[in-house]
């Protein structure tokens, strides 16, 4: 897939060939790059509804998304740092946090640029639903003041839990998604 994850899409069984179609049962496991240790999940069988009005049907199980989440979490893909250099429009300083959090104002009289370090503390949980899927991510955010000598001083850390729903639809032959923050 990329430098963080690889997909095993080998056949589980021989293809079933019928008059109007061929049924391919592919494995579909995502591994951290170079690490083919079985993920901590068991694949549950699922059945694709019998329809015959389209040329191609693809089905992805919850297991596929769970192994993807495991691979990217193991590789550290859900950890990022956001700083002034990362985003040119990012212009938050200790002065802004000082007006919201009095302890920051006491510590930092001079306004300094702020840097955020976001980390997933647990593997994101992905659940498939009828018309969408949900993603629950637990993490932490540490906020730093970037001092004039280029060192960082930790201001505060907060734990975060985000639960989002993502619905995919096809409009004008394009795959479109809508994201809703549940909590």
UniProtKB/TrEMBL annotation:
Just give the chief location class. secreted
* Pfam families registered for this protein in UniProt: LBP_BPI_CETP_C
Q: Name one GO biological process term.
A: defense response to Gram-negative bacterium
Q: Which GO terms describe its cellular component?
A: extracellular space
Record domain Lipid-binding serum glycoprotein C-terminal: where: 50-183
Q: Fill in the domain comment.
A: The N-terminal region may be exposed to the interior of the granule, whereas the C-terminal portion may be embedded in the membrane. During phagocytosis and degranulation, proteases may be released and activated and cleave BPI at the junction of the N- and C-terminal portions of the molecule, providing controlled release of the N-terminal antibacterial fragment when bacteria are ingested.
Q: Report the function annotation for this chain.
A: The cytotoxic action of BPI is limited to many species of Gram-negative bacteria; this specificity may be explained by a strong affinity of the very basic N-terminal half for the negatively charged lipopolysaccharides that are unique to the Gram-negative bacterial outer envelope.
Name of the molecule in the record: Bactericidal permeability-increasing protein
Q: What's the source species for this entry?
A: Hemiprocne comata
């Amino acid at each position: 897939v990329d430098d963080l994850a690889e997909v095993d899409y080998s056949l589980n069984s021989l293809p079933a060939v019928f008059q109007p179609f061929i049924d391919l049962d592919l494995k579909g496991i995502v591994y951290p790059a170079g690490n083919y240790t079985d993920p901590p999940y068991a694949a549950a069988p699922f059945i694709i509804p019998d329809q015959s009005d389209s040329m191609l049907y693809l089905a992805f199980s919850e297991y596929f998304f769970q192994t993807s989440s495991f691979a990217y979490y193991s590789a550290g893909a859900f950890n990022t740092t956001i700083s002034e250099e990362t985003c040119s429009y990012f212009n938050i300083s200790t002065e802004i946090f000082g007006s919201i959090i009095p302890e920051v104002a006491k510590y930092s009289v001079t306004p300094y640029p702020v840097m955020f370090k976001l980390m997933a503390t647990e593997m994101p949980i992905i659940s498939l639903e009828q018309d969408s899927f949900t993603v629950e991510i637990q993490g932490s955010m540490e906020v730093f003041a970037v001092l004039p000598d280029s060192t960082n001083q930790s201001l505060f850390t907060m734990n975060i839990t985000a639960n989002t729903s993502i619905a995919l639809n096809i409009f004008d032959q394009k795959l479109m998604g809508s994201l809703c923050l549940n909590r």
